[in-house]
Amino acid sequence: PEAGKVQIDLGKVYDMQKDEKGVWSVTTDQQVPGFHYYSLVINGVRVSDPASETFYVSVRMSSAIDIPEAGVDFYTIKNVPHGDIRNVVYFSKTTGTWRSMNIYTPPGYDKSGKEQYPVLYIQHGGGEDERGWAVQGKTNIILDNLIAEGKSKPMFVVIPNGNVSRPGSSAGGYNDEAMAAYKEELSGSIIPFIETNYRVKP
Questions:
Q1: Are 160 and 85 in contact (CB under 8 A)?
Q2: Which of 32, 59, 170, 189 pairs with 161 at a CA distance of 20 to 30 A?
Q3: Do residues 95 and 193 make contact, with C-beta atoms less than 8 angstroms apart?
Q4: CA gyration radius for the chain?
Q5: Is the whole model's pTM more than 0.90, yes or no?
Q6: Are the beta carbons of 28 and 8 closer than 8 angstroms?
Q7: In this predicted structure, what is the pLDDT of residue 20?
Q8: Collapsing DSSP states into helix, strand and coil, what is residue 193?
Q9: CA nearest 159: which of 93, 108, 83, 96?
Q10: Burial status of residue 146 (CB atoms within 10 A of its CB: 0-12, 13-18, 19 or more)
């Protein structure tokens, strides 16, 4: 109630107007189809919209809106066999800590006996984490549909958290030191964990 200025940051910042009932509103420019992060800016402080789901982006929690594109249904849930998104923890030799990653397993993996699957290791965008492709990116829905249509082979997709820092290091983001730590994490901890615990091709 004490907010003196409320804005919405949708890549461009829009000033909101308060009506006589105390409700803030604004009409933004038309947005292109796709997934858009946004924040409320209350008295200059960026916060997530409490009335929407939040996501980790730009190294903080943010809200988002997903604008569908006419005629595009590759990330629509369909009546096809579905794979799983599995959240697992593994020990990182690079950080000396337990870390989390998401894994897409294709439809029928648990019943496929000794079959080995190709694996794709995919990196999230800057400032995101292991939820980026698993949640915002709808990896499981896209691959379920592609596999059902015969446009993709059944495969694993490994979605780790690329924000890696060695103990005592302040490196972050995408500088050379942070990227070297991520390379070490991927080759020294993530790939061995996947190849030890799942039926994937090396």
A1: no
A2: 32
A3: no
A4: 20
A5: no
A6: yes
A7: 93
A8: helix
A9: 83
A10: middle
